[in-house]
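Progress against Task 2.4 (sequence-to-structure conversion) is shown through the following example record, which the project officer requested during the mid-term review.
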Amino acid sequence: MKLREDFLWGGATAANQYEGAYLEGGKGLSIADVERGARHGVQRQIDDYVHEDALYPSHEATDFYHHYKEDIALFAEMGFKCFRMSIAWTRIFPNGDEEEPNEEGLKFYDDVFDELHKYGIEPVVTLSHYETPLYLVQKYGSWRNRKLVDFFVRYATTCFKRYKGKVKYWMTFNEINATMRIPRPYHQAGLIFKEGEDANQTVVQASHHMFVASAKAVIEGHKIDPENKIGCMLLFPETYAATCSPDDQVAAREKMLSLYYYGDAHVRGYYSNTCTSMWKRLNAKAPEMEPGDEELMLAGKVDYIGFSYYFSSIEGGNAEQIEGNVISGGRNPYLKITDWGWQIDPVGLRNTLNKLYDRYQVPLFIVENGMGALDTVEEDGSIHDPYRIEYLREHIKEMIKAVEEDDVDLMGYTPWGCIDLVSAGTGEMRKRYGFIYVDKHDDGTGTLKRSRKDSFYWYKKVIETNGKEL
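C-alpha coordinates generated for the chain above:
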Protein backbone atom coordinates (compact mmCIF):
# COMPACT_ATOMS: atom_id res chain seq x y z
CA MET A 1 0.00 0.00 0.00
CA LYS A 2 1.19 3.53 -0.83
CA LEU A 3 0.11 6.91 0.46
CA ARG A 4 -3.10 7.61 -1.43
CA GLU A 5 -2.90 10.14 -4.24
CA ASP A 6 -5.55 12.27 -2.52
CA PHE A 7 -3.70 12.14 0.82
CA LEU A 8 -4.77 15.12 2.92
CA TRP A 9 -1.56 17.00 3.69
CA GLY A 10 -2.19 20.19 5.61
CA GLY A 11 -1.95 21.83 9.00
CA ALA A 12 -4.01 22.20 12.16
CA THR A 13 -5.20 25.00 14.44
CA ALA A 14 -8.01 25.71 16.92
CA ALA A 15 -10.19 28.81 17.13
CA ASN A 16 -9.47 29.49 20.81
CA GLN A 17 -5.70 29.50 20.21
CA TYR A 18 -5.55 31.18 16.82
CA GLU A 19 -8.67 33.10 15.87
CA GLY A 20 -8.64 36.01 18.31
CA ALA A 21 -11.44 38.62 18.14
CA TYR A 22 -12.87 36.94 21.22
CA LEU A 23 -15.80 39.38 21.54
CA GLU A 24 -16.18 40.57 17.96
CA GLY A 25 -18.96 39.65 15.59
CA GLY A 26 -21.44 38.81 18.34
CA LYS A 27 -19.28 36.06 19.84
CA GLY A 28 -19.92 35.00 23.44
CA LEU A 29 -17.44 33.84 26.07
CA SER A 30 -16.12 30.28 26.01
CA ILE A 31 -14.32 28.38 28.76
CA ALA A 32 -11.04 29.13 26.95
CA ASP A 33 -11.70 32.87 27.13
CA VAL A 34 -11.47 32.86 30.94
CA GLU A 35 -8.30 30.78 31.15
CA ARG A 36 -5.31 33.00 31.81
CA GLY A 37 -2.01 31.90 30.31
CA ALA A 38 0.95 31.00 32.48
CA ARG A 39 4.66 30.70 32.10
CA HIS A 40 6.28 27.35 31.50
CA GLY A 41 5.52 24.97 34.34
CA VAL A 42 2.90 27.15 36.05
CA GLN A 43 -0.76 26.11 36.30
CA ARG A 44 -3.17 28.10 34.16
CA GLN A 45 -5.65 30.22 36.10
CA ILE A 46 -9.35 29.54 35.55
CA ASP A 47 -11.76 32.41 36.23
CA ASP A 48 -15.53 32.84 36.24
CA TYR A 49 -15.25 35.98 34.13
CA VAL A 50 -12.67 38.11 32.33
CA HIS A 51 -10.53 40.36 34.55
CA GLU A 52 -9.90 43.65 32.79
CA ASP A 53 -6.43 44.05 34.30
CA ALA A 54 -5.20 40.54 33.39
CA LEU A 55 -3.47 39.28 30.24
CA TYR A 56 -5.32 36.64 28.26
CA PRO A 57 -3.12 35.71 25.28
CA SER A 58 -5.96 33.86 23.53
CA HIS A 59 -8.14 36.95 23.26
CA GLU A 60 -6.16 38.22 20.29
CA ALA A 61 -4.05 35.10 19.76
CA THR A 62 -2.49 35.48 16.30
CA ASP A 63 -5.65 37.03 14.91
CA PHE A 64 -6.82 34.70 12.15
CA TYR A 65 -10.14 36.56 12.34
CA HIS A 66 -8.61 39.59 10.64
CA HIS A 67 -5.81 37.81 8.73
CA TYR A 68 -7.56 34.76 7.31
CA LYS A 69 -7.08 35.72 3.67
CA GLU A 70 -3.36 36.31 4.16
CA ASP A 71 -2.94 33.10 6.14
CA ILE A 72 -4.89 30.92 3.72
CA ALA A 73 -2.80 32.30 0.86
CA LEU A 74 0.31 31.16 2.75
CA PHE A 75 -1.22 27.72 3.32
CA ALA A 76 -1.95 27.53 -0.38
CA GLU A 77 1.64 28.51 -1.17
CA MET A 78 2.77 25.51 0.88
CA GLY A 79 0.40 23.38 -1.15
CA PHE A 80 -2.06 22.42 1.60
CA LYS A 81 -4.69 19.92 0.52
CA CYS A 82 -6.65 20.52 3.72
CA PHE A 83 -6.76 22.81 6.72
CA ARG A 84 -7.89 21.50 10.10
CA MET A 85 -9.60 24.23 12.11
CA SER A 86 -12.40 24.54 14.64
CA ILE A 87 -15.57 26.55 14.65
CA ALA A 88 -15.97 28.55 17.85
CA TRP A 89 -19.29 27.34 19.26
CA THR A 90 -19.81 30.75 20.90
CA ARG A 91 -19.46 32.50 17.57
CA ILE A 92 -22.54 30.61 16.37
CA PHE A 93 -24.50 30.39 19.64
CA PRO A 94 -22.97 33.00 22.01
CA ASN A 95 -24.47 31.50 25.17
CA GLY A 96 -24.95 28.03 23.77
CA ASP A 97 -28.66 27.65 24.54
CA GLU A 98 -30.20 30.14 22.09
CA GLU A 99 -32.92 29.05 19.69
CA GLU A 100 -31.44 30.98 16.75
CA PRO A 101 -27.78 31.25 15.68
CA ASN A 102 -25.71 34.38 15.29
CA GLU A 103 -25.70 35.22 11.60
CA GLU A 104 -22.52 37.28 11.78
CA GLY A 105 -20.64 34.28 13.13
CA LEU A 106 -22.06 31.96 10.48
CA LYS A 107 -21.06 34.44 7.78
CA PHE A 108 -17.46 34.60 9.03
CA TYR A 109 -16.98 30.87 8.52
CA ASP A 110 -18.74 31.06 5.15
CA ASP A 111 -16.06 33.53 4.13
CA VAL A 112 -13.25 31.33 5.52
CA PHE A 113 -14.52 28.22 3.73
CA ASP A 114 -14.98 30.12 0.48
CA GLU A 115 -11.41 31.40 0.72
CA LEU A 116 -10.10 27.87 1.35
CA HIS A 117 -12.01 26.49 -1.62
CA LYS A 118 -10.64 29.28 -3.81
CA TYR A 119 -7.28 27.52 -3.44
CA GLY A 120 -8.64 23.98 -3.52
CA ILE A 121 -8.10 23.42 0.21
CA GLU A 122 -10.57 21.14 2.02
CA PRO A 123 -11.68 22.35 5.47
CA VAL A 124 -11.46 19.73 8.23
CA VAL A 125 -13.64 21.13 10.99
CA THR A 126 -13.80 20.31 14.70
CA LEU A 127 -17.11 21.33 16.25
CA SER A 128 -15.95 21.54 19.87
CA HIS A 129 -12.24 22.16 20.45
CA TYR A 130 -11.83 23.16 24.10
CA GLU A 131 -14.34 25.99 23.73
CA THR A 132 -17.63 25.04 25.45
CA PRO A 133 -19.75 28.18 25.99
CA LEU A 134 -19.05 29.60 29.45
CA TYR A 135 -22.75 30.26 30.02
CA LEU A 136 -23.47 26.53 29.74
CA VAL A 137 -20.94 25.92 32.52
CA GLN A 138 -22.35 28.64 34.75
CA LYS A 139 -26.07 27.94 34.26
CA TYR A 140 -26.20 24.20 33.56
CA GLY A 141 -23.02 22.75 35.07
CA SER A 142 -21.64 21.91 31.63
CA TRP A 143 -21.70 18.30 30.39
CA ARG A 144 -22.92 16.85 33.69
CA ASN A 145 -26.30 18.18 32.51
CA ARG A 146 -28.23 16.21 29.86
CA LYS A 147 -29.57 19.47 28.39
CA LEU A 148 -26.20 20.05 26.73
CA VAL A 149 -26.90 17.15 24.37
CA ASP A 150 -29.68 19.10 22.70
CA PHE A 151 -27.71 22.33 22.69
CA PHE A 152 -24.76 20.66 20.99
CA VAL A 153 -26.91 18.84 18.44
CA ARG A 154 -28.68 22.11 17.55
CA TYR A 155 -25.27 23.74 17.03
CA ALA A 156 -23.89 20.83 15.01
CA THR A 157 -27.02 20.58 12.86
CA THR A 158 -26.90 24.32 12.19
CA CYS A 159 -23.31 23.94 10.94
CA PHE A 160 -24.07 20.85 8.83
CA LYS A 161 -26.94 22.64 7.10
CA ARG A 162 -25.21 25.97 6.63
CA TYR A 163 -21.95 24.54 5.30
CA LYS A 164 -23.34 21.68 3.24
CA GLY A 165 -21.17 21.41 0.14
CA LYS A 166 -18.43 23.52 1.76
CA VAL A 167 -17.30 21.13 4.51
CA LYS A 168 -17.36 17.35 4.33
CA TYR A 169 -14.74 16.38 6.92
CA TRP A 170 -15.89 16.92 10.51
CA MET A 171 -14.91 15.89 14.04
CA THR A 172 -17.20 16.24 17.03
CA PHE A 173 -15.09 16.72 20.21
CA ASN A 174 -11.37 17.41 20.27
CA GLU A 175 -9.31 15.04 22.46
CA ILE A 176 -12.50 13.86 24.16
CA ASN A 177 -10.59 11.39 26.33
CA ALA A 178 -9.03 14.34 28.17
CA THR A 179 -12.40 14.46 29.95
CA MET A 180 -11.15 11.61 32.13
CA ARG A 181 -8.18 13.69 33.26
CA ILE A 182 -9.40 13.86 36.82
CA PRO A 183 -9.27 15.98 38.98
CA ARG A 184 -9.46 18.89 36.48
CA PRO A 185 -11.23 18.06 33.22
CA TYR A 186 -12.26 21.70 32.81
CA HIS A 187 -10.22 22.29 29.69
CA GLN A 188 -12.06 19.62 27.69
CA ALA A 189 -15.52 19.40 29.24
CA GLY A 190 -15.97 22.54 31.33
CA LEU A 191 -16.36 20.50 34.53
CA ILE A 192 -15.66 22.17 37.86
CA PHE A 193 -16.36 19.83 40.76
CA LYS A 194 -18.35 20.91 43.79
CA GLU A 195 -17.28 20.12 47.33
CA GLY A 196 -18.23 16.56 48.18
CA GLU A 197 -19.12 15.67 44.58
CA ASP A 198 -18.14 12.24 43.27
CA ALA A 199 -15.81 13.45 40.51
CA ASN A 200 -15.43 10.02 38.91
CA GLN A 201 -19.17 9.48 38.67
CA THR A 202 -19.63 12.96 37.20
CA VAL A 203 -16.99 12.28 34.54
CA VAL A 204 -18.67 8.98 33.60
CA GLN A 205 -22.05 10.73 33.29
CA ALA A 206 -20.71 13.77 31.44
CA SER A 207 -18.86 11.50 29.01
CA HIS A 208 -22.07 9.60 28.32
CA HIS A 209 -23.84 12.84 27.46
CA MET A 210 -21.00 13.69 25.07
CA PHE A 211 -21.22 10.23 23.45
CA VAL A 212 -24.94 10.67 22.89
CA ALA A 213 -24.43 14.21 21.57
CA SER A 214 -21.74 12.99 19.18
CA ALA A 215 -23.89 10.07 18.00
CA LYS A 216 -26.89 12.29 17.37
CA ALA A 217 -24.69 14.75 15.49
CA VAL A 218 -23.27 11.96 13.32
CA ILE A 219 -26.76 10.71 12.50
CA GLU A 220 -28.00 14.20 11.60
CA GLY A 221 -24.85 15.02 9.66
CA HIS A 222 -25.26 11.94 7.49
CA LYS A 223 -28.93 12.77 6.89
CA ILE A 224 -28.16 16.33 5.87
CA ASP A 225 -25.33 15.34 3.54
CA PRO A 226 -24.50 11.68 2.88
CA GLU A 227 -21.07 12.88 1.67
CA ASN A 228 -20.13 14.01 5.18
CA LYS A 229 -17.32 12.13 6.88
CA ILE A 230 -17.63 12.63 10.63
CA GLY A 231 -14.95 11.44 13.03
CA CYS A 232 -14.05 11.46 16.69
CA MET A 233 -10.78 12.89 17.93
CA LEU A 234 -8.60 11.21 20.54
CA LEU A 235 -5.48 12.22 22.42
CA PHE A 236 -3.12 9.24 22.08
CA PRO A 237 -0.64 8.89 24.97
CA GLU A 238 1.55 6.09 23.61
CA THR A 239 2.84 4.20 26.64
CA TYR A 240 5.53 1.56 27.11
CA ALA A 241 6.20 -0.60 30.13
CA ALA A 242 9.14 0.73 32.13
CA THR A 243 10.70 -2.74 32.35
CA CYS A 244 9.98 -6.31 31.28
CA SER A 245 8.32 -6.93 34.64
CA PRO A 246 4.82 -8.36 34.07
CA ASP A 247 3.47 -5.82 36.55
CA ASP A 248 4.84 -3.00 34.39
CA GLN A 249 3.09 -4.51 31.36
CA VAL A 250 -0.18 -4.35 33.27
CA ALA A 251 0.53 -0.75 34.31
CA ALA A 252 1.22 0.28 30.71
CA ARG A 253 -2.03 -1.33 29.53
CA GLU A 254 -4.02 0.34 32.28
CA LYS A 255 -2.58 3.75 31.34
CA MET A 256 -4.21 3.32 27.91
CA LEU A 257 -7.64 2.21 29.10
CA SER A 258 -9.18 5.68 29.26
CA LEU A 259 -8.22 6.24 25.62
CA TYR A 260 -9.90 3.02 24.54
CA TYR A 261 -12.91 3.86 26.70
CA TYR A 262 -13.68 6.80 24.42
CA GLY A 263 -12.58 5.03 21.25
CA ASP A 264 -14.83 2.04 21.91
CA ALA A 265 -17.88 4.18 22.62
CA HIS A 266 -17.38 6.24 19.45
CA VAL A 267 -16.22 3.59 16.98
CA ARG A 268 -17.81 0.40 18.26
CA GLY A 269 -20.91 2.24 19.40
CA TYR A 270 -21.31 0.55 22.78
CA TYR A 271 -19.73 0.24 26.20
CA SER A 272 -17.22 -2.59 25.83
CA ASN A 273 -15.61 -4.60 28.60
CA THR A 274 -12.87 -1.95 28.59
CA CYS A 275 -15.52 0.60 29.49
CA THR A 276 -17.28 -1.45 32.15
CA SER A 277 -13.94 -2.32 33.74
CA MET A 278 -13.10 1.39 33.87
CA TRP A 279 -16.24 2.01 35.92
CA LYS A 280 -14.92 -0.51 38.45
CA ARG A 281 -11.48 1.12 38.50
CA LEU A 282 -13.12 4.50 39.09
CA ASN A 283 -15.43 3.04 41.74
CA ALA A 284 -18.27 4.44 39.65
CA LYS A 285 -21.61 3.09 38.48
CA ALA A 286 -22.75 2.80 34.89
CA PRO A 287 -24.00 6.16 33.60
CA GLU A 288 -27.69 6.95 33.78
CA MET A 289 -29.18 6.46 30.33
CA GLU A 290 -32.45 7.46 28.72
CA PRO A 291 -34.40 4.88 26.68
CA GLY A 292 -32.87 4.67 23.21
CA ASP A 293 -29.38 5.85 24.18
CA GLU A 294 -27.77 2.51 23.37
CA GLU A 295 -29.44 2.44 19.97
CA LEU A 296 -28.31 6.02 19.31
CA MET A 297 -24.69 5.22 20.13
CA LEU A 298 -24.74 2.24 17.79
CA ALA A 299 -26.40 4.18 14.97
CA GLY A 300 -24.11 7.19 15.43
CA LYS A 301 -20.74 5.48 15.13
CA VAL A 302 -18.05 7.71 13.63
CA ASP A 303 -16.61 7.28 10.14
CA TYR A 304 -12.96 7.69 11.10
CA ILE A 305 -10.61 8.40 14.00
CA GLY A 306 -8.70 11.64 14.16
CA PHE A 307 -5.99 11.72 16.80
CA SER A 308 -3.15 13.75 18.24
CA TYR A 309 0.29 12.27 18.74
CA TYR A 310 3.18 14.23 20.19
CA PHE A 311 5.26 11.95 22.41
CA SER A 312 5.37 8.73 24.39
CA SER A 313 6.15 7.85 27.99
CA ILE A 314 6.76 4.82 30.17
CA GLU A 315 4.67 3.37 32.97
CA GLY A 316 5.66 1.29 35.98
CA GLY A 317 8.83 1.08 38.02
CA ASN A 318 9.95 4.29 39.64
CA ALA A 319 10.28 6.42 36.53
CA GLU A 320 10.64 10.18 36.86
CA GLN A 321 7.30 11.78 35.95
CA ILE A 322 7.06 14.42 33.23
CA GLU A 323 4.12 16.46 31.92
CA GLY A 324 2.96 16.97 28.34
CA ASN A 325 -0.27 17.74 26.48
CA VAL A 326 -2.55 17.51 29.54
CA ILE A 327 -1.16 14.12 30.61
CA SER A 328 1.84 12.84 32.54
CA GLY A 329 4.06 9.80 32.17
CA GLY A 330 7.43 8.35 32.98
CA ARG A 331 10.73 9.56 31.54
CA ASN A 332 12.16 7.23 28.90
CA PRO A 333 15.99 7.28 28.97
CA TYR A 334 16.16 6.27 25.30
CA LEU A 335 14.43 9.41 24.04
CA LYS A 336 15.43 13.03 23.53
CA ILE A 337 13.13 15.76 24.81
CA THR A 338 11.91 19.13 23.54
CA ASP A 339 12.46 22.51 25.22
CA TRP A 340 9.21 21.83 27.10
CA GLY A 341 10.18 18.35 28.26
CA TRP A 342 8.06 16.37 25.77
CA GLN A 343 9.75 13.12 24.72
CA ILE A 344 10.47 12.77 21.01
CA ASP A 345 9.47 9.33 19.73
CA PRO A 346 8.82 9.05 15.97
CA VAL A 347 8.57 5.25 16.13
CA GLY A 348 5.79 5.74 18.65
CA LEU A 349 3.67 7.23 15.87
CA ARG A 350 3.98 4.01 13.87
CA ASN A 351 3.08 2.04 16.98
CA THR A 352 0.09 4.30 17.56
CA LEU A 353 -1.19 3.92 14.02
CA ASN A 354 -0.97 0.15 14.28
CA LYS A 355 -2.63 -0.02 17.69
CA LEU A 356 -5.57 2.09 16.57
CA TYR A 357 -6.01 0.38 13.20
CA ASP A 358 -5.65 -3.12 14.63
CA ARG A 359 -8.34 -2.39 17.20
CA TYR A 360 -10.86 -0.41 15.16
CA GLN A 361 -10.35 -1.08 11.43
CA VAL A 362 -11.59 2.37 10.39
CA PRO A 363 -9.63 5.05 8.51
CA LEU A 364 -7.24 7.08 10.64
CA PHE A 365 -6.27 10.75 10.39
CA ILE A 366 -3.25 12.28 12.16
CA VAL A 367 -4.73 15.68 12.96
CA GLU A 368 -2.09 16.88 15.45
CA ASN A 369 1.66 16.23 15.58
CA GLY A 370 4.49 18.64 16.22
CA MET A 371 6.88 20.17 18.69
CA GLY A 372 6.82 23.44 20.57
CA ALA A 373 10.19 25.21 20.33
CA LEU A 374 11.95 28.52 20.83
CA ASP A 375 12.50 30.20 17.45
CA THR A 376 14.98 33.00 16.78
CA VAL A 377 14.46 35.69 14.15
CA GLU A 378 17.83 36.55 12.58
CA GLU A 379 18.88 40.08 11.69
CA ASP A 380 17.90 39.51 8.06
CA GLY A 381 14.45 38.28 9.14
CA SER A 382 15.12 34.60 8.42
CA ILE A 383 14.05 31.88 10.87
CA HIS A 384 16.10 28.68 10.84
CA ASP A 385 14.31 25.77 12.51
CA PRO A 386 16.17 22.54 11.65
CA TYR A 387 14.92 20.98 14.91
CA ARG A 388 11.32 21.26 13.68
CA ILE A 389 12.18 19.83 10.28
CA GLU A 390 13.99 16.92 11.90
CA TYR A 391 11.10 16.18 14.25
CA LEU A 392 8.49 16.20 11.49
CA ARG A 393 10.68 14.37 8.97
CA GLU A 394 11.26 11.46 11.34
CA HIS A 395 7.59 11.23 12.25
CA ILE A 396 6.52 11.31 8.60
CA LYS A 397 9.00 8.50 7.84
CA GLU A 398 7.35 6.31 10.47
CA MET A 399 3.88 7.32 9.29
CA ILE A 400 4.76 6.19 5.76
CA LYS A 401 6.10 2.87 7.09
CA ALA A 402 2.77 2.28 8.85
CA VAL A 403 0.98 2.75 5.52
CA GLU A 404 3.41 1.05 3.13
CA GLU A 405 4.66 -1.82 5.31
CA ASP A 406 1.80 -2.32 7.79
CA ASP A 407 -1.14 -1.51 5.46
CA VAL A 408 -2.74 1.02 7.79
CA ASP A 409 -5.55 3.04 6.16
CA LEU A 410 -4.47 6.67 6.68
CA MET A 411 -6.43 9.66 5.37
CA GLY A 412 -4.06 12.52 6.04
CA TYR A 413 -1.58 14.40 8.18
CA THR A 414 -2.00 17.89 9.64
CA PRO A 415 0.88 19.04 11.88
CA TRP A 416 -0.23 21.07 14.86
CA GLY A 417 0.09 24.83 14.83
CA CYS A 418 1.06 25.15 11.18
CA ILE A 419 1.17 28.86 11.93
CA ASP A 420 2.27 30.17 15.33
CA LEU A 421 -0.53 30.34 17.88
CA VAL A 422 -1.05 30.40 21.65
CA SER A 423 -0.11 27.22 23.50
CA ALA A 424 -3.14 25.50 25.02
CA GLY A 425 -1.08 24.00 27.82
CA THR A 426 0.84 27.03 29.03
CA GLY A 427 -0.73 30.07 27.36
CA GLU A 428 2.60 31.07 25.84
CA MET A 429 3.51 32.48 22.45
CA ARG A 430 7.20 31.65 22.76
CA LYS A 431 6.31 27.94 22.53
CA ARG A 432 6.05 27.94 18.76
CA TYR A 433 4.94 25.14 16.44
CA GLY A 434 4.39 26.81 13.08
CA PHE A 435 5.90 26.81 9.63
CA ILE A 436 4.88 30.47 9.68
CA TYR A 437 6.23 32.83 12.33
CA VAL A 438 3.87 35.43 13.77
CA ASP A 439 5.34 38.49 15.48
CA LYS A 440 3.43 38.18 18.77
CA HIS A 441 4.97 37.77 22.21
CA ASP A 442 4.10 36.60 25.70
CA ASP A 443 3.61 40.16 26.98
CA GLY A 444 1.01 40.84 24.28
CA THR A 445 3.26 42.99 22.11
CA GLY A 446 4.01 42.40 18.45
CA THR A 447 3.01 43.52 14.97
CA LEU A 448 1.34 40.21 13.95
CA LYS A 449 3.52 40.20 10.84
CA ARG A 450 3.75 36.78 9.18
CA SER A 451 7.12 35.33 8.11
CA ARG A 452 8.13 32.03 6.48
CA LYS A 453 10.46 29.77 8.44
CA ASP A 454 12.85 27.33 6.78
CA SER A 455 10.35 24.56 7.58
CA PHE A 456 7.79 26.35 5.37
CA TYR A 457 9.83 25.58 2.25
CA TRP A 458 10.69 22.08 3.46
CA TYR A 459 7.04 21.15 4.04
CA LYS A 460 6.08 22.59 0.68
CA LYS A 461 8.45 20.08 -0.97
CA VAL A 462 7.07 17.24 1.15
CA ILE A 463 3.55 17.97 -0.06
CA GLU A 464 4.63 18.47 -3.69
CA THR A 465 6.19 15.00 -3.74
CA ASN A 466 3.50 13.31 -1.61
CA GLY A 467 6.07 12.46 1.02
CA LYS A 468 8.74 11.14 -1.32
CA GLU A 469 11.22 13.98 -0.61
CA LEU A 470 11.80 14.48 3.07
